[in-house]
């Protein structure tokens, strides 16, 4: 069988820190994943912290503590993260709920059979093998909506800021377009070659107690806007994202959505997953190996 990922793709990935591969999924597979997400959203329970009214400073603190908890314990669950301004102060939707979400995360790969199937598909395993990964494990997964009109920007970052390993260079994102991702609806932009300069900051868990649950160490860097190159992708295509490559996406001011399913893998062989990362394997969900049937 001809490799889905060619030698030239591997070279491009190593040189630039990312590569776009067309045709990972068929159009029908994309539609099935989207349809399943519509059902999940139809049935979702709106998280309590979104429903809390904030009339006093104390309530506001509780609400923000609630959302921090909701995030940091989401690694082994399916949870809902919303765009800004989609709830009124009683926690009722101001927009149709199918149009309210920023993302759903972080364990679709474990709990949702269709998503699990795609994550472990022969093509995905073939990509990991082609890149020489010995023991890749799945760290997390997300469905990102980039809603028409309100889908917010994702500022320039490196994924290893959030998913830190020693040594670096062990994490890769697979970002699958379930609809065409274009410069108009918020495709990814990269600084080619930026994966070779380490990382500028890390997000770490803070010691248990009061206050924020995570903090940043290091500096948020500013990047030369001119250096970013757009990476539009056709429905069904995948972008491989090196853990240290600088990337971002613009807000979606168009009338089209830009749904993607994305997950991150780590070469577990010879790597140390930082215990300070927000995301930790749990008893319910240790990081599952990618190479399974
Ligand atoms: O989907 C997006 O707009 C951004 C995703 C991203 O930057 C990431 O998954 O690291």
UniProtKB/TrEMBL annotation:
Cofactor(s) listed in the protein's UniProt record: Fe cation
Key word Iron present: yes
Gene Ontology MF annotations: metal ion binding
Keywords of the record: Iron, Metal-binding
Statement: the UniProt record of this protein carries the keyword Iron: yes
Family per similarity comment: Belongs to the PhyH family. PHYHD1 subfamily.
Role summary: 2-oxoglutarate(2OG)-dependent dioxygenase that catalyzes the conversion of 2-oxoglutarate to succinate and CO(2) in an iron-dependent manner. However, does not couple 2OG turnover to the hydroxylation of acyl-coenzyme A derivatives, implying that it is not directly involved in phytanoyl coenzyme-A metabolism. Does not show detectable activity towards fatty acid CoA thioesters.
Name this protein carries in UniProt: Phytanoyl-CoA dioxygenase domain-containing protein 1
Record organism: Fundulus heteroclitus (Killifish)
